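Hi W., the magnesium ion complex you wanted:
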Amino acid sequence: MYFILIMGPAGSGKSTLTAAFSQWIEDHQMSVAKVNLDPAAEVLPYVPDVDVRRYVRTYDIMIKEGLGPNGALVASVDLLINYVAELVEEIYETRSNYVIVDMPGQLEIVAFRRIGPQLIKELTKGCKVVSLFLTDARLVAQPASAFSILLLMLSTLYRMDIPIIPVVNKVDLIASKETLEKDPTILEDSVYLFKMLRDDYSCLEVGALSYYIDSDVSAGLCRILKQVVGDAVPVSAREFYGLDELYANVQQVLAGGEDYLTEEPSGVL
Ligand SMILES: Nc1nc2c(ncn2[C@@H]2O[C@H](COP(=O)(O)OP(=O)(O)OP(=O)(O)O)[C@@H](O)[C@H]2O)c(=O)[nH]1
Ligand SMILES: [Mg+2]
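Structure:
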């Protein structure tokens, strides 16, 4: 059993990618369990096999505790730790090759607080895990925003200690699927994040744009980021674009490039 965590800023397309990628995996004759780990989710674009809302709902916490939406989400994730045994049992009962976990929209839970990593550690015990750090292509199109998202990835990596694959979603908003299939290099010119993870010059350039940060600092940070996160994968969860490449990257991390079907399943309890 392999775990694929889908995390990223609010609205980056985590739930949509959970639906699309699980469909892709099933279309390739492998089994997959979809886990909704977001107690605040209202409508999901897939039918979850395991759903935390069975145990905790953010809306109920808001009413009961008199909290605002953000405080209530944090409080509901805190409560989830009490249901780990039930969740683990439900996940293992699915006996699937892959488990895709749709993470809560508030990235703070995984990047800054202890409870997110603790919960994930308990849920995935003994299994290989990879996380997909999803961003909206429009959010990482400009140098400064691309850099700040990369730093957020680095914070998440410190907190979670799980390999991260950067995934740029919604590339259909940059160019059509047909155009991208003909010429994928279009993305490199319009989405800065791809450039930063490829060439050193672009990182120096970001530093040069800042009044307070020396270019060398930006270049050094970029070198570290390139080492720990690698290249970003472009996808469109809505248009089913880039999912083959995403699967190849996931397998590279989980099984050193071996296809699941040619591998001895590891970690199945
Ligand atoms: N154009 C386009 N829109 C997308 C894509 N993926 C998701 N969306 C849209 O982006 C919006 C947010 O998608 P969700 O999947 O709910 O995003 P999320 O990250 O799960 O959101 P939260 O859980 O609230 O943080 C929805 O309107 C989706 O239809 C994509 O690849 N292309
Ligand atoms: Mg969601």
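Confidence is low (pLDDT under 50) at residues 264-269.

W.
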